[in-house]
């Protein structure tokens, strides 16, 4: 366990500007996905502020921990992180899945949360790539 904490401290000790970019990008991404989920009648957060707890307080630290790993490792570890988040959200009823939504129709209701976790696990490698590009564009000198 001590090995993990040392790893985590190292990975989370980053430039505050990088964290700010993660927070802005993930907040906008989360608000956009919540809006899309409502418009498409797929799923939504029960409260708008859950974007902050899920995307910023949960997903940003996970992204930082996974940053620098190969795509497949970020996705695999991200799948575990998102599986736990999706499970908790629907178990605690802080997330709402619209009845008979398009994912239920296409994949079956029993596969809804799994499908969501499989999709949202892509956030970690994609988010790390996007934030890295924006950070480099804004702050790294050529």
Description:
The structure is a single chain. This protein is mainly alpha-helical. The chain has one domain. Helix content is 74%, strand content 4%. It has helices spanning 2-12, 16-39, 50-66, 71-91, 102-107, 112-120, 123-139; strands at 43-45, 95-97. A two-stranded antiparallel ribbon has the order 1-2. The relative contact order is 0.16.
Helix count from the secondary structure assignment: 7
Main beta sheet, described? 2 strands, antiparallel
- Alpha-carbon distance between the termini? 39 Å
Please report the total strand number as a whole number: 2
Catalogue the unreliable spans: none
Order of helices and strands: HHEHHEHHH
Strand order within the widest beta sheet: 1-2
Overall pLDDT: 94
Shape: globular
Q: Structural class of the helix and strand makeup? A: mainly alpha
Total domain modules: 1
> Which oligomeric form is depicted?
single chain
The rounded Rg comes to 16 Å
Helix content: over 70%
Percent strand? under 5%
Summarize the entry for a quick read.
By secondary structure, this protein is mainly alpha-helical. 74% of the residues lie in helices and 4% in strands. The protein has helices at 2-12, 16-39, 50-66, 71-91, 102-107, 112-120, 123-139; strands at 43-45, 95-97.
Descriptors for this entry?
74% helix; two-stranded antiparallel sheet; globular; 142 residues
Secondary-structure topology with pairs:
Layout: H1 2-12, H2 16-39, E1 43-45, H3 50-66, H4 71-91, E2 95-97, H5 102-107, H6 112-120, H7 123-139
Antiparallel strand pairs: 1-2
Helix pairs in contact: 1-3, 2-3, 2-7, 3-4, 3-7, 4-6
